[in-house]
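hey so u asked for the seq, here:
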Amino acid sequence: MLRRLPFLAGLCAAPLPLAAQDVMTMVIRPIARNTWVVSGFTNGNILVIGGRTGVLLVDAQSEKRVALADSAIQTVTSLPVGLVINTHYHDDHIGGNPWWRRKGADVLGHEALITEAKKDTTIPELEWHRTAAAPEAIPNLTFRDSMLITHDGERLFVLHPPPAHTSGDAIVWLPARNVMHTGDILEREAPPFIDWWAGGSLDGMIAGVDFINARINDSTILVPGHGTPANRAGLLAYRAMLVAARERIGALLREGKTLDDVVAARPLRDFEAMLGSERRTGQFVWQVGRGLSGR
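ran it, structure tokens below
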């Protein structure tokens, strides 16, 4: 069942090309018993975990769209949100934290998330200046290693893999529902972003996928940081793309090719449909090449 709000008219269940999506669209879909995903445009997926007395969220959405996400959640449950778990420090995952904290929720994040969120970072190659997060967007609860949480008597695992997408990634696993939120270690219908500037790496992303795969089965529903849910087969196809990127782009760099030469060679041509387009794949190739070259 697809729940539609007034501003969701015309959005179908299948993902639309980004250019065709309304940037202020939010939709909520059930994926398991008392479990939903809130998604929209390129923003991070919120996993909504219902209970008898309250709701737990994985990720908070961006500051700009958190109110829309909250409205979507209220179409399936009126229970209060008691805890938000952030999967990493990027704004489209922690920007909504102040909204949930004002409504009485605690926010949990890895210690390294706090460190990265407090930084003022400029990345000239991407023309990106990420200012430090506002104090109220910083989680008020932290953890260092993987931990166990009980939600209405149900065991949830908050897992911290070695640095993958960032240095402070969290994966949330619900064994009883066979659902796992992977954060941005897994992305769908678009290239992943490897945050080389915050401890991420391509090797780490591949290891992160293996970390996930070791804990799931063929029926597990994987909620990616962005895009539609996946299963193990989808995860392994994504892993094959990451490995191909490491091997092919690395080989071109060892031949002395420049980053522009590497992008022009289209080394991931056979994965362009998976990654959204030739243009977006080229951006990913550049990003991987930039990291592998050690710049």
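The chain has two domains: 6-230, 242-295. The mean pLDDT is 90.
lmk if thats what u needed
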